[in-house]
Amino acid sequence: MSSLTHHPIDDFFRGFFVRPVDIGNSGAAEAPQMRVDVKENADGYEVHAELPGIRKEDIHVHIDGPVVSIGAERKVDKELKDGERVLRTERYYGKVSRSFQLGEDIDEARASAKFVDGVLELSLPKKAESQATRLVIE
């Protein structure tokens, strides 16, 4: 047997992250990309997603139990003018999204997200196991 431990989440993430999105004639350099790192600790998960060139307002994160979805959209409008005459207008649009399942449910009420220097940082605490409750009969 191999001394390396195999984690089932590795299979889930394999080939998942570095994939440019085809958005037509604008070229792959303009397509948004997303590299994602997920780290697990005893209390939860830390997710770092690189989204260069994306505005905070164009990023959406959705949590449903253990499933986390990150979506982002790039919109770029460039206009080259000569005085009042428009010589050229370029528009680039692209979307990228990733959805993955973590090992445990996420406590949405305590989850947090911040976006600094093109990196989305998610702090996703694990949901505490529910305790069985014994009802008192009156």
General description of the model:
The protein has 138 residues and is mostly beta strands. The protein has a single domain, classed as Immunoglobulin-like. It is 4% helix and 46% strand. It has one helix spanning 8-13; strands at 35-40, 44-50, 59-64, 67-82, 85-101, 112-116, 119-125. Strand 1 and strand 2 form a beta hairpin. It is elongated. The model is unreliable at 1-29 (pLDDT under 50).
Question: What descriptors fit this protein?
Answer:
138 residues, mainly beta, disordered N terminus
Per-chain topology:
Elements: H1 8-13, E1 35-40, E2 44-50, E3 59-64, E4 67-82, E5 85-101, E6 112-116, E7 119-125
Antiparallel strand pairs: 1-2, 2-7, 3-4, 4-5, 6-7
Label the structural class. Answer: mainly beta
The total strand number stands at 7
Radius of gyration: 21 Å
Number of domains: 1
Largest sheet features: 4 strands, antiparallel
CATH topology: Immunoglobulin-like
Percent helix, as a range, is under 10%
> How much strand?
over 45%
Quick one: CATH class? Mainly Beta
- How far apart are the first and last residues' alpha carbons, in Å? 58 Å
Instruction: Count every helix, treating DSSP H or I runs of 4 or more residues as helices.
Output: 1
Q: Tell me, rounded to a whole number, the average pLDDT.
A: 76
Low-confidence stretches: 1-29
Shape: elongated
Order of helices and strands: HEEEEEEE
Can you list the strand order of the major beta sheet? 1-2-7-6
CATH architecture descriptor name: Sandwich
